[in-house]
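Researcher: Go.
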Amino acid sequence: MFQPDRLTLGLMQPMAPLINGVPDMAGQLALAARADALGFAALWVRDVPLFDPEFNDAGQIYDPWVWLGQLAAVTRRIALSSAGIVLPLRHPLHTAKAAASVDAVSGGRFLLGAASGDRASEYPAFDRSHASRGEAYREYIEVIRRSTSEDYPELSGTFGSLRNLDLLPKATDGHLPLLAVGSAQQSLQWIARHLDGWVTYFRPLEQQRPRIDTWNRTVQSIAEGTFLPFTESMFIDLAEDPDTAPSPIFLGYRLGRHRLVEELTAFAKAGVHHVAFNLRHSTRPADEVMQELAEFVLPSFPSLQAPTTPPSQAP
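Model: Structure:
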C-alpha cells in the first residue's frame, strides 16, 4: 500500500451514492472482492457511530469492525484500513482488540486509521467530552500501541487500569500500523513521533503542496530517513470522455481518465503516496468506473501486491 517511490490507489467504501444520507449496501462486498482482483492497493472503511441528519452521511451504516471482518473474508491481497475510527468515543482496549483481530484474520493486511471525531453532536450520547478529545486521542494511541505489541503491559489512565492481564491477539509482527486521519487535534510533530503516517482531505495540488512539504520537513526533523507516508482522499466522478477537463466537486473533481492520470502524476511528484478514491458522487455505476480505472489508470500507479491470503485465514 505504501512505498516511498510511488503513489498507489485505493477505494473508499461504500462505492454507492447516498439517499437521504444512507447508502444502498447491496453488492458492496462483491465490489470489494472485485477491487481486490483488479489490483487496487487498499479498501477504506469509515466510522460513523451515530447518524446526524445535519451531516446527512451514515458512512457504510454497519459497525466498521463488523464490516472489516466481512471484507477480510472476501478479499485476499488488498490492504484494509479505517478512515478513521473515532478513538475518543471507544474504550481503547476494545479498539485495540478489534484492530488486532482484523489484523490477524486478514493475514496482516490492516492499518488502523484513527480520528478524533468531527461530529460534536455524538459526544453527549457517549458521555464523553468533545473539548478534551485531543487529550483522549493521545492517551488512547499509547494504550493501543502498547497493548497490541507488549506482553502484559502495565497501563493506567482515564480509561482505567491494566495490571497482570494481557490483550490478545497481538499485532502481526508485533506492530500495528497507525495512521492519523485528519489532524486529530494534534501537531504534525506529535503525529510524526507517534504514528506511522498522515491521512488528510483532498485539496487542489497548489493548496496541498504546502502541507506535503511541511509534513516531509517535520518527518525529517524528527526522524531523518524514516518513511512516513502522506495520504489523501479524493472524490471523483469519472466522465465517459477520457479528455474531460477537471471541474470541482465536493472534495475532488469530475474529470476524464486522461486528466486523472495527469493529476495523479502531479500529486505523486509532489510527494503523495496514496490516494483513496471516493465514488459517492459518481454519476456512473461503481463497477464500470472501477473497471476503467483498472484498465487505464492503475497501470501508471501499480501497487506491490502482497502474497495471497486465503479468505479462510481466520482462526
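Model: The mean pLDDT is 95.
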